[in-house]
Amino acid sequence: MAPGFPAQVIVDARAAAKDYARLSIGDEDGVIDALARAALTMAEAFLCTALIVRPHRAVLPVRPGWRLLPATPVTAIGTVAGLGADGAAITLPAVGYAVDIDSAGDGWVRVDDAAGASRIAIDFTAGLSADWAGLPAPITQGVVRLIGHLQAEREGAAGPAPAAVTALWRPFRRVALLERIR
Fold first, then answer.
1. Whole-number Å distance between alpha carbons of 30 and 181
2. Cβ-proximal residues to 121 (8 Å cutoff; 6+ apart), any chain
3. In three state form, how does the secondary structure of 150-178 look?
4. Is it true that domain 7-51+129-172 has CATH number 1.10.287?
5. Residue 35: its pLDDT value, please?
6. CA distance 161 to 180
């Protein structure tokens, strides 16, 4: 489950969108903030990359072998806990699982002894940049343009991101046709 974006990132995205649109009044800041959240979420979905470093939690069914975490690039893997069918936490033995972060930033978890758990909950940190300013310029420009598109189309169905936006993002997109096997 991906958490929301830090407040400062939304403020910075709003400021960039207002600069781009040459808006100086603040009466639509709440609307632009909501559009910024939506645009950042759409960017992450398109890019298959967590943009801003923040905590994540994945809940996966227990099965043999290495499991790929759903957000990348992973910077740290914290708690790995078992979950029973009723959702109750089950402590996994220290030798019952292994974690790894590979050179591509993908996080992996392997459970050898689930101790009766049917699912595992993994807390980890993932993201490309600590803040808005650290993101690559084509990504932020695409987010800004998407905010403008969503604002212009807010009375109707906005549809997918415009081609100009996806063209900016495409070089940064991670594509996974199938879950990678390790």
1. 43
2. 57, 58, 59, 79, 80, 81, 82, 83, 89
3. HHHCCCCCCCCCCHHHHHHHHHHCCCCCC
4. no
5. 94
6. 27
With bands split at pLDDT 50, 70 and 90, how would you rate the model's confidence at 146?
very high
DSSP conformation letters of 23-57: ----TTHHHHHHHHHHHHHHHHHHHTS--B-EEEE
Q: What is the pLDDT of residues 147-182, one digit of tens each?
A: 999 988 877 666 778 999 999 999 999 876 555 555
CA distance 34 to 139: 18
pLDDT at 123: 96
The sign of the torsion formed by the CA atoms of 18, 22, 27, 32 equals negative
pTM of the complete model: 0.85
Answer whether residue 1 shows pLDDT above 70.
no
Domain with CATH 1.10.3230 in the chain: 7-51+129-172
